[in-house]
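SAMPLE LOG
Freezer: B-3
Tube label: C17
Construct: single chain, 103 aa
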Amino acid sequence: MGNRIRRSGWGVRDRPGSIACLMAVLRLFAAARTAAGAARDVLPGDTVADVLDAAVERYGPEFAAVLPTCAIWLNGEPAVATAALGPDDEVGVLPPVSGGCAR
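STRUCTURE (predicted):
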């Protein structure tokens, strides 16, 4: 993943008494990218599900409608929603695609 964004680690909200939370890179492809209007973002979350929930909140119902059809990857491997995130993790949202050569 040559274009991977590197982050320094934990993102902490600056308000007194706030809780530290992890920030993960979210990469969006095809219809998910179109629905979100972005190819990449950095969102809070300790798990894959947390990051996806933050994405739905940020991008709204059009993105939420695409998400159930998507494959979710963590660092280039299939992921489960409960997977815990580390400081350099990247979550990918890949909708199904079709195409190719007709014979």
